[in-house]
Structure formats: structure tokens, C-alpha cells
């Protein structure tokens, strides 16, 4: 912002609120801007499945409240932390409004959820405007782990990386990452079971924050594997991600996992940890094997070493070349038992979720499989099969084999990541890219990724910071200090034209 000029692209929540307060921007103008961006860019990027038909009405209501606020001489913060901020939701997060919640599949078109998801209730209470639903890898890419491409769903088609159109947007929260990266929304929410926030955020040059499992309620969200599912922000900046986390974290009686995790929420919330000097004194463990070996672009490998030096210059204590026990097993979900546990949990949890819906074309996993078979052209079964769904349907409950696999995974986490963190007294583990997500998945631990650079072909990559359960305050300090010292993110090159509102 400069003088009376305000540029919407790349604006943070704080900057938007300042523009509201200065009467340089209205919520209606903001929503109109994003709706225009979606109309213009979505035919190419396929990031948004549908927009909220009530978005403009909600923006006008937000503006009326803003006007009352100015007339009463009260600050905008009195209206809510996200007042007037347009938010896109992954199309697995339930909204009790005119929007569908379908996981990208036609199998759930027209179904009605009984209530808003808890995180949506919190967003609305904070004044956010639900802008629409973002696309994803259909059914969390769980219909077939090998057949469905990252970012593809029947309803939206193939999501496209805004930096390199031939490159992967990753998944499953692909649309949420694409949309905020290309300035089609202010902020967004995604979900992660195994890499579904961290990977698309890294591949689309945005910040992704996967919280400790249970820190944010999963109630009202289409389940994948409840023992590992987490709801988190995908935004252009760490400060915006923290703003969203501050709003959506908390206890929810409808999600028993929040009873334990909510104890981690610090008094005063998370914004207090946006500390520019947050790297000073932090002990960071660098795990290179096997993650560095998988990097094919020399830009990324050079950048990672450069960033380690930057972390050291910013005051962090670097403990380099650490090794995670049994990491090769952890990274192979079929061998570790992770896929088996996912399939068993998915069948049970999706059947329970579907029974709460009204007007739903399907009421069980078996019904979904049958729907797909009966609508092969609609669901593109010629290209993308549903092998994983079929295997999951064949599992008869959470039996001894599944229980043994779950115990093995807990043991792998305890003897691997948890032991590494405790033995070296680490505040965070640092890895390139997103392949370490299996480590935090099985440990139900938090992670955050921050833009770290661009490959020789322009493809973005991120750097990931992971910690033990409840370590969000430390991760925020580390990620924010890193972001502020590097400021690497830049908008996609095809969409750098600016649109400016000028208030006289």
C-alpha cells in the first residue's frame, strides 16, 4: 500500500483490514475482484469447483457492519479476526448453505450436510466470507492411489500448476493452493492425512500449515483416516496462515481428538509468535537422507544448503546430517502398514459420515463404488479406476491385522522422529520439499512449509519445518523468521498484472 493506493494481489489479511479501516477498500470490491479472477483464470487452472452464490450478499453485509463500526468509532477487530476476508474451502469441508460438499465427485452432488463443519462455524463467527469450494485430488486421491493424477477430480477436471502448467500441482488440497497462489482468494483451508497440505503448498509457492491432529476439529469434514486427518491453512504468507489457525483451533465436543490437542493452545493465541527474531537460539535438526537424494533440480539442492546457512546466520543452532531410524520403511506406506490402516479407517468413517447426509445419492462406500461403475464416463473410469476403494470395501472392520499395523506405525514414530527430536533437544526438523510428510503423518505431528525457491524450469519448491505434537508456537517463530529474512515467494509469472483500487 502506498498513499491512497491499495493493491489487492498478494495483500495480507492485516493489509486488507487496514484498507477497510482507511476506507480505501470495501468487502464488496474485494469479493468482486476475486470472483472476476476466478472467472478469468479458472477455465485454465481448474482450482475452484464452485463459487458461493451468496458471496456478494455476504460482502454487502460485511460492509454494512464496517460502516457501523466507523460511525461508532470502534476498531475493525471488534468485528472479528477475519471480518470481510474471502475464504476458499477444500471441497471436503462441509457448509450448510447453497454450496455442495462432494470431495470432487458427482457421487455426492445434491447431498446436504446437517450443519456447518466446526471450522466453518468458527470462520463465520470471525467474520469470514465463504467464497466457494476449491478443487482437489478426488476423494483425497484415495479412489485409486496409482490411477488418479494429482489435482484431478471429476467435477473440476485437472488442476493446473500456475507456475509450470505441465508441472504437478500436487494434492490432495491442490485447488486451495493453486487458488491462493494465483490470487483467486485471500486465504484458503485444506486438509492433510499424508502430505495433502504440505505438498501442494510447496509445489505452488505458498505457505501450508498442517496442525497437530485434533488441534482443529474434523467434525463435518469428509473423513479419510481420522487418526491422522488434520485441517489447516494454505495462504500466501505465514502471518495469514497463523491468523486462520488462530480462528479455527479449539475444542469441539463433536471431535474427541480436540479434547487432548486443545490443551496445546497457548493463552493469547498464536499471533504472538510472529517473531522476526524467532530463529535465535532454536535447535534445528537437518535430515538430508533420503530426501536430498531425490532432488533432481540443482537449483533446489543449492537453495537448501543456502537456506541452512541463512538459518544459522539468523541465530539458529544447526545440527546437521541427522538420520531417522527406519526411514525407508516409513516412506513406503504399503510396507509400513499405513495404507492398510487408511483403508480400514476410510471404510468405517466414510460410512458413518454418509449416514448423516440427506438427499445423498450414496449412503456407503459400496454405494460409491456402484455409482462410479454406473457412471464410468462421468467419473472417467476409463482412465482412473477405483482399486483402493474396492480393497477398502473388502476389509471387514478394524481387525487384528489392522491393529498390529497401527501399533507398528506408532512404534516407528516413537523410535524415529520422536527419539530424534528428544535425543538432540530439537525445536524442529528441517527437510527439503514434502517427502518427509509420512514422518509427521504417522506421528500426528505438525509441520509447516514455506516457499524456498524455483527450479530451473520455474517450478516452485518449499522447505519444511516439523515438530512434536503441540509445537506450533515454535514452528511459527521459525517459519515466520525464515520467511521474513528471505521473502522468496513471487506471484506466478503468467498472472503478475496488477489491479489497483484507488480511494479518493
UniProtKB/TrEMBL annotation:
Coiled coil spans: none
Signal peptide range in chain numbering: none
Domain Amidase as annotated: residue spans: 30-435
Superkingdom, taxonomy of origin: Eukaryota
Database matches in Pfam families: Amidase
PANTHER family: AMIDASE (PTHR42678), AMIDASE C869.01 (PTHR42678:SF25)
Protein name: OLC1v1021341C1
Organism: Oldenlandia corymbosa var. corymbosa
Native organism taxonomy: Eukaryota, Viridiplantae, Streptophyta, Embryophyta, Tracheophyta
